[in-house]
Structures are given as C-alpha cells and as structure tokens.
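Would you mind giving me a polypeptide sequence along with per-residue structure tokens?
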Amino acid sequence: MKVIIKILIVAAALWASTKLVDGIVLTADTTSKQIGTLLAVALIFGLVNAVIKPVIKFVGCAFYVLTFGLFALVVNAALLLLTSWTSEQLHLPFHVNGFMAAFWGALLIAVISWVLEMILRVND
C-alpha cells in the first residue's frame, strides 16, 4: 500500500512540475490520458531512482562529500532526464527539455514529494 501512495505522490509532484516549470511538458490530450501518463512516469521515475541512484551514490561519493551534498541536485536532474528519455522510448507524452528544466523540476518534485509524505505520514 505504501508503494502505491508513493507513486501517487510522485505523480502529483510530476503534475505540479509540468504546470510550474517551463520545459517539462505533458502532451496527452485528455484528462484520463494525462493521469495515466503521470502514473506511468511516476513508476518509471521510482524505478530509475531505486536502481540507478544507489550506484551513482556509491561511485560518486567523493563528489557528494566535496560539494556537501549539492551534487545530489545534479544527480536528481540527470535521473529526471533519464526518466524523460525512457518515457519517450515507451511513447509516453512526457518530455523534459534540457538540464535546467530537469534541475528545477527535480528540485520541485523532491520538495512536493517530501511535503506530501510528511502530511500523509507515509514513512511512519
């Protein structure tokens, strides 16, 4: 149940990022297709974070230490770009245009996800 709630939270954060960040676009034409796309992209984003992020943290731990953790912002942006690329390969109407859009989008997704998880007490 916790996994489903987290996917819904990330989907909501992705939706907010499409509305607030120029360069993150969702081109589905109906509301049901938009919701389906957001849920699919949230699942892809979760899988990318679960599989690739630990490897990057292990390999790049020196960068995390040298930048006092700010390197995580760059990693999160790169993972959002990878999610966008994967979504395009699966013919989902979701796209992130460039690194800066990915940077601000990843930051916004992280903040919104954190706030919603705190409100819904997902990690209790």
Observations:
- The helical segments are 2-20, 31-51, 53-59, 61-66, 71-89, 99-120.
- The chain is about 75% helix and 5% strand.
- The chain has a mean pLDDT of 92.
